[in-house]
Amino acid sequence: MILKICGITNQQDADAAIGAGATAIGFNFYPKSPRYLEPNSAAAIRTSPGVRRVGVFVNESAAALESTARLARLDVAQLHGDEGEAAFSLPALSVWKAVHVGPEFRFDFYQAFDAEALLLDGPAAEMYGGAGRCFDWTLAASSPRRIIVAGGLDASNVGRAVELARPWGVDACSKIESTPGKKDHKKMIEFLQAARMALGA
Prior knowledge:
The chain is of the alpha/beta class. The chain has helices spanning 11-19, 39-44, 62-72, 158-165, 185-199, and strands spanning 2-5, 24-28, 52-57, 76-79, 94-100, 117-121, 147-149, 169-172, 177-179, 182-183.
């Protein structure tokens, strides 16, 4: 099961997330994001054994992905753009394909992607990455693929999201922050507790 806290920018937030049961933490390498982190800074953030280090990318080349993954000691590349086939076959790096779920969403379009999981996020208009908005979680329940639910999750709704979507994991970011890139530890811990209970983790 994946219990992911995304948009980590500092050691204190990483420690609090891992201490509360997070099994994955995300670093955002998209320069236009308010949670952007230099690869060197991500590399300096320590994590416990078994906690997956996830890099969020938008339209990076396979070479850039591999370089950042090596430097920041990533386990997973979370791809939000229109990356080519080469980005899905990097050595020793799992891939999660991020997808915004809107009215035209169809699972069959994503069956060809060689990804460990699909990360389903809420609508984001012109933005890459999440916008803190939920989607219809019942759409995820029909997926033949592993699903991670993201978008607008916090302690108040993650249980319902898990009940309806039956996902492999959940991912929270903006709803558990005090400001972009700075986590509200109380909200984060409450989210992780509720998510663990819902997932039976």
